[in-house]
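This follows on from our talk about sequence and fold. I would like you to pick a protein and set down its sequence and fold. Go ahead and set the record down below:
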Amino acid sequence: MNLLNLLDAPLGFLPSLEYAGCAIALALLVLLCSYKPLAILQQCGYRNKKLLGWYARKDNLLFHRYCLLFLMLALTCLLLGICFAFLGMDIAFRLTLAPFLFFYILFYVLDKKYALKVPVNPTARLKRLCVVYFFIWTVVFYFFIATVNVIAYQTGSELFGLWRYAVLTLAPLAIPYILSFANLSDSVYERAVNQKYVTHAQEKLAKSDAIKIGITGSFAKTSVKNILTQILREKYTVLPTPASYNTPMGVAACVHGHQGELPQIFIAEMGARNVGDIQELCELVQPDYAVLTGVCAQHLETFGSVENVVKTKAEIIDGTKKGGTVVIGKDEYTSTLTPDTAAHKILWVDGDAVQDIALSCEGTSFTLLYGEERLKIRTKLLGAHTAQNIALAATLAKELGITGDMLVSACEKLEYVPHRLEILHSGGVTVIDDSYNANAKGAQHAVEVLKCFSGRKFIVTPGIVELGILEESINARLGSLLTELDGVILVGETLVGAVKNGYLAAGGDAAKLTVTPTLSGAQEILKQTLQSGDTVLFLNDLPDVY
C-alpha cells in the first residue's frame, strides 16, 4: 500500500483534509505563542545568533515557560489517551489533541502579562517572516501527523496508536530554532528587497542638489545631529534622519519618506557594529561634509577590539567626497588617525574649543571659540559634554556660513534630545531620562549631571552592554562613580554583578544598594522611597534581548 492510500485508509486514519486542518490549527497556536521570540529577533536586528544566544541564557524565563508548556502538554496527552481508551482508538487519539488548544491559549494569555519593554513593530518584514514561519510549522506538523499515523497503521500497536500525537508536544521547545530557520529562509528575499530599496534611495540622493552630511562616532551621534540641525535651520532647510535611524535601511526610509525634492541639507546619522558598516553608509549618502564625534570602547561584542572600532569610524573620512570637510573630535583614539589632508579639509576639535564651562541643573553655559570670535553660549542641555557636542556642530556650521549671532540664537532654542539626559518632572521629583545612553563615556557624563542637582540623588541602571572582554571592567568603573549617591538600584542579572562589585570596592554603602530583576521592580522601590525634591537618573534602559 502506498503512502497516498495510507493517508486515506479508513482504519483509524485521519483523512488528508483533516491532517491539513490539524496542522494549520497547531501552526496558528504556535505562532500565537511566539510573540516574544519574534520581538526579540526584531530587537536583534534579525540576527539568529543573537536570538539563540539570548534563548540559551541560563536565566531565560521564556525557556522555562516553554519547558513547562511541553510538560503539561505531554502529561495531559498521555493521560487522556489512557482515560478515553475505552471509547476506542479512533476517538481516544483524537481527544489527545484537546490539551493543545487549551494550554497554548492559556500560555498566550499568561505570557502577555510579562510585558516587553520594546513591543513588536508590525513592519512589512515582520509580517512576511510570520507568513514563512507559519508555513514552515504547518509543513512540520503535517509531516509528523502523517508519519505517526502511518506508523500506527502499519504496526497496529494499540499503545502507540493512543499516544501517537505525543511527539507534537515537543513543539514549544523547538520554537526559537524553527523561527531562526524561517528567518534564514526569509532573509534571502529580504536582502534582495532591501538592496533594491537602498539603491533607489542612493539614486535619489545622487540626483539631489542637497548638501549631504554624515555623522558617526561611538557616542553623541544623535545629540550632535540634533544640535547641528537646529543651528543650520537658522539659514537652511534641513532634513535629518529621525531618531536613531542610522543603518542603510533607516537612511533609505528617511529619504523615501520625504515627498518631493530633498531640502537644502540632508544629515545622515551613521551607526556601525561591524567593520565596513560606515563605508557602506558613505556609499549610500556620498557626504560632502562629515563629523566624527569621537571613539570609545563600544560594541566590542561585534567589533572584537577598539582598534576595529577606530578603523570603522574612520571610514567616514575616506567616504567623504574629495575636497570635502571632516570635523573630528580629538580624543585618545582619534588622535592616532592620520587622515589625508590633501584629499579632505580636516578640522580637529579638542577641549580648547570651549572654556569657562558652568554647569547647573538649569543647563550649561560656556565660552566657544568661533574663529576670531568668543561667543557666550547658553543652553538648557545638561552636562560638560554638551559644550563639546555644540563645538563639534558649530565647527561644521561655520564652514556652511552660519554667523556667530545665528549660532548663539540656535543654542538658546535647543531642546532636550528624547531619552538623552531629558528632564522630566513628576510629583516634585526630577527625573533624568538617559535611557538611550549605552556607552561608557556617556554614562560618566550622566552621573556628573545627576550630581549637579540638589536634594537626594538616585540612579536606576542595568549597566552597559556590548563591551566584549572590557564589559566587566567598564561596568565596575561605572559602579565606582556611584558611591556619593543616596540610592543605587541595579536592574537585571546581565551586568549588575560587575557594577555592584565596583561600587562596593570603591567604598559604596551596601545599605544604599538594591538589585532587582526587572524595571517594574525598580519602579516599585522608587515609589516607596522617593519624596519631593529628589532626583533620579534612569541610565541605559536595556531592551528585552539583554
